[in-house]
């Protein structure tokens, strides 16, 4: 088979590595890819939103399977023109990817089908939002309705903070059109857990659990980011929690979308909050999480291409997902100043240290090649991932491996996975 992967971040690097292990695959392309993905794939200079060019490329090269990585092209409807051209593609159509594309849509879906989530209201008028906030209980959460690179969520402790948040989103348009409509949501407390799942329109099969660290600084302080690190599995995701989610959240979401005429094939990412009253849905994504993919996929035993095809063909019920009985931790190496402003073009040293080491991986998120050197080309630069027999060993291994890499302005949180010490 010939496979095309669309995207160019750490998630797509993790997908490419997994696809490369499939006995069914002879050739991998990635558009646009990055310096690390080149180990597995031929990188093509086509952007993720250039749908016509991507479809033409897939037809010209007789691609057997296209895998869509990021949220923007999925929400923008990339799957539809691929299907219209008779091409096999893994990911939800536009009318199903709205599950991630609009928080208002997903909240309304959960309310209609009684899927547990936080209480909320939706606003398109900033004055109406502020009037509501003047009567609200604090803390409270403001969410941009559309895609905002994982940063469109503000936790406001006071009315003044909430008013500033409305101004930031709806008047200053810091998140562009994504903030023209906002969701104001009850603040929930508890442990956060991420669960990724394969879906074929009717059947859903969940992967091993994970937990992300969104804030830029230690102690979950600082600005929201695309993710500063993650670990898998989550010790807080118990069998009791899994049973509850299987009964009231996972299948219920797939069924709700089908009843709305929005058949979902691809990945649903469930962001969960484990509250005192039970698990609640914090958010949905319509693709692999990043950096969750970097700890979940290296532990997966299945041939991922077979799973992708089963989702497309509606035969996922015949697949038994299997994961290694171990743990993995990913620490993101970022450029100092991320997510606000940072320098690019810094030479990265030490990448060769990972070549011969079993259970250690370095996934490229924001890198590029300049002549024969690999340099920084983004805020999140690399995801350093390591396995271990348990979470504590995996965490120690991952932090040891971060020392093998060096570049100017290198920054990482020092407390990824610290929550496991409390177990």
TrEMBL record:
Gene Ontology biological-process annotations: 'de novo' IMP biosynthetic process; purine nucleobase biosynthetic process
Domain of life of the native organism: Bacteria
Catalytic activity: 5-phospho-beta-D-ribosylamine + glycine + ATP = N(1)-(5-phospho-beta-D-ribosyl)glycinamide + ADP + phosphate + H(+)
Residue ranges occupied by any ATP-grasp domain in the UniProt entry: 107-313
Keywords noted in UniProt: ATP-binding, Ligase, Manganese, Metal-binding, Nucleotide-binding, Purine biosynthesis
The keyword Manganese appears for this protein: yes
EC number, UniProt record: 6.3.4.13
GO molecular function: ATP binding; metal ion binding; phosphoribosylamine-glycine ligase activity
Record NCBIfam families: purD (TIGR00877)
Protein name listed in UniProt: Phosphoribosylamine--glycine ligase
Organism: Candidatus Galacturonatibacter soehngenii
